[in-house]
């Protein structure tokens, strides 16, 4: 029987792995693009973009 009452349960999707901000920062400092970091770390574009955003905001403080 097909599920017709809505979507999936909240939180039931794939879980993300924590990302190493220090490694992302070091790779950016070496001149790697976000796309190259995604490939080298085996992560997603969204996760790397959020990490870079966090690194940039911390460096401004």
Automatic annotation (TrEMBL):
Top-level taxonomic group: Bacteria
The protein's name in its UniProt record: Uncharacterized protein
Originating organism: Vreelandella rituensis
